[in-house]
Design brief:
The protein starts with a strand and ends in a 16-residue tail after the last helix. It is globular, with a radius of gyration of 15 Å. The chain is about 35% helix and about 20% strand. The strands form 2 sheets. It has a 3-stranded antiparallel sheet with strand order 3-5-4. A two-stranded antiparallel ribbon has the order 1-2. The protein is an alpha+beta fold and about 100 residues long.
């Protein structure tokens, strides 16, 4: 494994290096290409619950660490059209 670096066109380049088994929330957000503040909402999704493994770093539930292999598996699942997803929410028009 290595480090994921955004290439500017929506993809990532993998820089070889020592594999990181666990990453913090900022690195997890970078791997998933989302804001760090949206990680909590993402973990509520059934597909994310199936793939992403994480744990609290303390008893007070202050910070999380994420399994880097599970983050990559989740990215691959999102890219796979065969993986079932929850239907998108559609707002109903009033009137």
């Amino acid at each position: 494994m290595g480090e994921f670096i955004p290439n500017g066109s929506g993809g990532f380049i993998l820089r070889p290096g020592k594999p990181k088994l666990e990453v913090g929330p900022s690195e997890a957000a970078r791997i998933l290409n989302c804001a760090q503040s949206s990680l909590t909402n993402m973990l509520d999704r059934p597909l994310a619950q199936k793939y992403i493994k994480w744990r609290w770093t303390s008893d007070s539930h202050g910070k999380r660490v994420f399994d880097s292999a599970s983050l990559q598996a989740y990215r691959e699942a999102l890219a796979d059209p065969e993986v079932p997803r929850a239907p998108k929410m559609v707002k109903k028009k009033k009137g």
